């Protein structure tokens, strides 16, 4: 069989045989963040006219990263919560100020009478 090269972002080792002789078995794997596409193990077999590998060598493809919508939702929820808390705090302060002003008016009217 023809000599094999490791896939880009991957490696292989010869599990059995010389790696090019009939009966050889080669095992492939990918580095972290990549996944193997194709057969993990290839065997060198007798072909019609010459030895050949049991299948095409595999490839290593990047594992797609999931979109993390949870973080975005948490940020939006935090912003909305802050707006609600701020508006309630402002309403409370306005209410207290109005109450104090009303009490002053009542005292002024009592002292004038």
UniProtKB/TrEMBL annotation:
Residues 1-62 form the Sushi domain. The chain crosses the membrane at residues 73-97. PROSITE patterns: SUSHI. Disulfide bonds join 1-44. Keywords: Disulfide bond, Membrane, Sushi, Transmembrane, Transmembrane helix. SUPFAM superfamilies: Complement control module/SCR domain (SSF57535). InterPro entries: SUSD3, Sushi/SCR/CCP_sf, Sushi_SCR_CCP_dom. This is Sushi domain-containing protein. It comes from Latimeria chalumnae (Coelacanth).
